[in-house]
């Protein structure tokens, strides 16, 4: 699993979300997309944790 490539794809998907009519993105949807594109559940889980760690406004301990 190439985490650098996944990070880049996460950033692309987040930007696409910001540019969409909804003007937003969902960590869960991005995670599902990564799982699908990489055909790897671990890649999707890693993506979700990456987003949660770097972009979440939740308090410590709320993210599982």
Describe this protein's structure:
With 64 residues, the protein is mainly α. It has a domain at 3-14 and 25-55. 69% of the residues lie in helices and 0% in strands. The protein has helices spanning 3-19, 27-38, 41-55. The longest helix is centred in the first third of the chain and has 17 residues, at 3-19.
In short:
By secondary structure, this protein is mainly alpha-helical. It has helices at 3-19, 27-38, 41-55.
Features:
globular; mainly alpha; 0% strand; 3 helices; 64 residues
What is the mean predicted local confidence, pLDDT? 90
Radius of gyration: 12 Å
Separation of termini? 21 Å
| Form type | globular
Largest sheet composition: none
Judged by helices, strands and strand pairing, the structural class is mainly alpha
Q: Count up the helices.
A: 3
How would you spell out the order of helices and strands?
HHH
Indicate the low-confidence ranges by residue numbers. none
Helical fraction: 55-70%
Got a strand count? 0
Strand content: under 5%
């Amino acid at each position: 699993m190439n985490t650098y490539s996944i990070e880049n794809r996460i950033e692309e998907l987040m930007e696409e979300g910001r540019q969409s009519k909804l003007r937003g993105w969902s960590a869960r949807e991005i995670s599902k997309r990564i799982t699908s594109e990489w055909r790897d559940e671990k890649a999707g889980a890693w993506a979700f944790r990456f987003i949660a760690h770097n972009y979440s406004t939740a308090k410590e301990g709320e993210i599982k």
